[in-house]
């Protein structure tokens, strides 16, 4: 229902050079090297996905139709991807000499040739496809819902609901919409009005209830439609697949409900009807430069460079990265986009899996569309909307770029340069100290893996950041167009931000799975979540004549599932950490990693959401500690919204011990500064994982990117640079600009059935 806009990300061709006295100083690329193991999380190859698809179409019992030809009553293949191998099968391979886990495909079928359509997950394998060996079976073991890997499909009739049911209703009041707004919603290509509404649909009392509303369509390339609500709402009952049973249930305008169209029309033309204003597109809703240019703004701004070339290594084929003492593999899926696996520091695994699980945008408002909207974005998918990144804007121009792929509707899509890797010099130091005798400074050089996903109206910028003190940060920022509310009667839910517009309040809550492996896996039951809380106390001391008001540390462990649902304490009093109780350091302190909320993390404000019921129970907590199980690989499922009372994964059904799931999020009450777009600078959240008694000291002391300056009576007597190399070249920033006119490329689409002689087959569809 969100109406994500189609976009085209083209293959970029640009040059990045530095100059010394007018001569090019070519930057070095990451050195060629090979990952120590195959990337078992990297997804299916084009050949694997194609062969699985071809095999599925040969299975008569599935009765499949090609997606291009499938109608409302046909079965089709939605998704073919790698079934992520079980951790218990992966560890003997990545940590030892075992063979790589057998590969299987996870397939999502859209089964509509029935009165009870479903989305059905199946497992196909083993791979490669071999007649007589390869089979398919329902995929059920990773889910709490035990219905053969299937959940009802509320989208099966979405097209016909609009064309044959909703549009005739809205066309029937075209006299009113023409009078109000000069346009109509007839379902025609030249309509000036659009109609869409809540997600997910209401599922009360065994009914499916829709609320839809009118929006002014945008008239140019700026997809500002979510800023153009018009304040007229219609309610329908679309239960079942028989259109004869669908019913219209009323209109809502200016907080007055009209149960029939006749009632609405009579009131409208009565002469006493209050007509409210419209939201109309204009420059205020466009993202181009507007207003007077600030002084000196046309001069080139500061630009980051890498004068020594890349100081990290990337195996592009296996998507494996090494930077300083860190190493990890990159994974990517249609549902949740970028993920990192087998994250090691100094050769020791810290995190087995760091992966987004779900992103929730839960709205509130006086009208039924704002109140009824709770987007679960993995349904739309982060992979399809992770487009090509712009060097010099999304990432530094010297970054290394990685392609991503996914296979949907019998088509391989490869988004080139959709993940970037780069080092950066922070605008603050890692360490600093000065006295009269010396000053010591250490640069804070960090490494980032980044992707940007434009899911519907919002742009999510995901950054995974690695620091030389051994810490890791996950950060998400949001930009794009808000989904605004109509201003009438909405003052308790948002600011009045434009002529007829209210900034509709909403919570963004994003859920990450962080599967810690602290100091090995042989004693995993010794891994605990430790809580260390600063508590105020009145304490007697042998050295004091009076009790003293002070504070102490109070330590406890999360040892049972009842303790595993955690809310952050007030005043940031409690430290949350994952430790290995079997391996203390030499001082007897438990070694581990601390979970440090950063940039305003939140949990969902709404309690017992009427929209979601049990579909997003993970959003209720700041941290949830559960035992890692192969049968519980995810906290959410993209089709949870299809049955909120019995979702595919009900997160509340598993709690007992070891792996960590972390909430990031932000409360968003849009204001005038959100027009035309929300900005990344303020809409952000993050979490930091930092070593806690893990090393003997601060290991960032190992870098040579530091300086010590000694003084003798106020005069510099010595400068120590610890063996740093001087920059290979100086840079003329005026010649270091990104050329937007070189940002061009090609689109190649390859669909099933496949021609093995196609030279582009291994590239797939580049969009």
UniProtKB/TrEMBL annotation:
Gene Ontology BP term (one): amine metabolic process
Keyword Manganese carried by entry: no
Enzyme's top EC category: oxidoreductase
Keywords, comma-separated and alphabetical: Copper, Metal-binding, Oxidoreductase, TPQ
Any one of the GO CC terms: plasma membrane
InterPro entries from the UniProt entry: Cu_amine_oxidase, Cu_amine_oxidase_C, Cu_amine_oxidase_C_sf, Cu_amine_oxidase_N-reg, Cu_amine_oxidase_N2, DUF1965
All residue ranges annotated as the Copper amine oxidase catalytic domain in the record: 304-698
Coiled-coil residues: none
Cofactor(s) listed: Cu cation
One Gene Ontology molecular-function label: copper ion binding
Assigned EC number: 1.4.3.-
Domain Copper amine oxidase N2-terminal: 51-129
Listed Pfam families: Cu_amine_oxid, Cu_amine_oxidN2, DUF1965
Record PANTHER family: AMINE OXIDASE, COPPER AMINE OXIDASE
Family, per entry: Belongs to the copper/topaquinone oxidase family.
Protein's recorded name: Amine oxidase
Organism, as annotated: Friedmanniomyces endolithicus
């Amino acid at each position: 229902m969100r109406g994500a806009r189609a976009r085209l990300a083209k293959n970029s061709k640009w040059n990045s050079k530095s100059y010394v006295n007018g001569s090019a100083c070519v930057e070095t690329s990451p050195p060629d090297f090979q990952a120590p193991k195959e990337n078992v999380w990297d997804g299916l190859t084009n050949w694997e996905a194609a062969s699985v698809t071809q095999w599925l179409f040969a299975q008569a019992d599935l009765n499949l139709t090609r997606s291009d030809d499938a109608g409302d009553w046909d079965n089709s293949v939605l998704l073919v991807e790698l079934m992520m191998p079980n951790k218990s099968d992966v560890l003997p391979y990545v940590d030892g000499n075992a063979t790589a886990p057998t590969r299987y495909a996870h397939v999502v079928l859209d089964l509509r040739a029935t009165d009870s359509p479903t989305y059905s997950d199946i497992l196909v394998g083993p791979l490669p496809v071999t007649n007589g060996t390869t089979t398919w079976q329902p995929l059920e073991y990773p889910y709490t819902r035990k219905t053969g890997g299937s959940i009802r499909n509320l989208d099966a009739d979405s097209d016909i609901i609009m064309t044959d049911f909703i549009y005739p209703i809205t066309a029937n009041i075209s006299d009113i919409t023409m009078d109000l707004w000069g346009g109509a919603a007839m379902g025609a290509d030249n309509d000036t009005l659009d109609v869409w509404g809540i997600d997910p649909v209401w599922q009360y009392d065994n009914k499916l209830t829709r609320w839809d509303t009118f929006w002014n369509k945008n008239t140019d390339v700026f997809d500002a439609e979510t800023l153009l609500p018009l304040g007229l709402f219609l309610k329908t009952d679309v239960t079942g697949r028989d259109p004869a049973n669908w019913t219209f249930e009323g209109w809502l305008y200016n907080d007055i409900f009209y149960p029939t169209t006749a009632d609405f029309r009579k009131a409208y033309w009565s002469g006493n009807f209050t007509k409210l204003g419209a939201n109309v597109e204009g420059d205020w809703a466009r993202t181009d430069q507007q207003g007077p240019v600030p002084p000196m703004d046309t001069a080139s701004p500061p630009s980051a460079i890498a004068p020594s070339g890349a100081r990290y290594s990337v195996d592009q084929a296996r998507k494996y990265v090494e930077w300083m003492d860190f190493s990890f593999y990159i994974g990517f899926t249609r549902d949740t986009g970028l993920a990192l696996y087998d994250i090691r520091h100094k050769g020791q695994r810290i995190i087995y899996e760091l992966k987004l699980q779900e992103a929730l945008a839960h709205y509130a408002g006086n009208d039924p569309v704002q109140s009824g909207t709770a987007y679960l974005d993995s349904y739309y998918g982060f992979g399809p909307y992770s487009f090509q990144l712009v060097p010099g804007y999304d990432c530094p121009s010297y970054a290394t770029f990685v392609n991503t792929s996914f296979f949907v509707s019998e088509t391989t899509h490869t988004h080139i340069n959709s993940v970037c890797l780069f080092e950066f010099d922070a605008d603050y130091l890692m360490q600093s100290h000065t006295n009269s005798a010396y000053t010591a400074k250490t640069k804070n050089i960090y490494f980032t893996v980044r992707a940007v996903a434009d899911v519907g109206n919002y742009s999510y910028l995901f950054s995974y950041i690695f620091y030389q003190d051994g810490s890791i940060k996950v950060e998400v920022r949001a930009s794009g167009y808000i989904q605004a509310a109509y201003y009438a009667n909405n003052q308790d839910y948002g600011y009045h931000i434009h002529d007829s517009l209210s900034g509709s309040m909403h919570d963004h809550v994003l859920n990450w799975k962080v599967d810690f492996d602290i100091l090995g896996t042989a004693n995993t039951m010794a891994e605990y979540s430790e809580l260390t809380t600063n508590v105020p106390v009145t304490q007697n001391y042998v050295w004091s004549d009076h009790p003293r008001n002070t504070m102490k540390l109070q330590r406890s462990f999360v040892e049972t599932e009842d303790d595993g649902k955690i809310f952050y304490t007030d005043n940031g009093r409690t430290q949350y950490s994952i430790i290995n109780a079997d391996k203390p350091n030499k001082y007897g302190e438990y070694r581990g990693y601390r979970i440090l909320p950063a940039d305003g993390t939140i949990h969902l404000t709404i309690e017992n959401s009427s929209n979601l019921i049990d579909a997003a129970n993970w959003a209720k907590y700041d941290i949830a500690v559960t035992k890692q199980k192969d049968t519980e690989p995810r906290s959410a499922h993209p089709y949870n919204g299809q049955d909120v009372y019995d979702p595919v994964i009900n997160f509340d059904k598993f709690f007992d011990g070891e792996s960590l799931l972390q909430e990031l999020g932000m409360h968003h009450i849009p204001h005038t500064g959100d027009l035309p777009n929300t900005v990344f600078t303020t809409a952000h959240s993050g979490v930091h994982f930092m070593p806690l008694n893990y090393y003997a000291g601060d290991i960032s002391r190992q870098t040579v990117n530091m300086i010590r300056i000694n003084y003798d009576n106020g005069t510099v007597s010595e400068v120590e640079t610890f063996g740093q190399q001087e920059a290979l070249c100086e840079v003329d920033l005026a010649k270091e600009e990104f050329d937007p006119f070189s940002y061009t490329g090609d689109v190649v689409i390859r669909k099933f059935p496949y021609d093995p002689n196609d030279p582009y087959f291994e590239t797939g569809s580049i969009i």
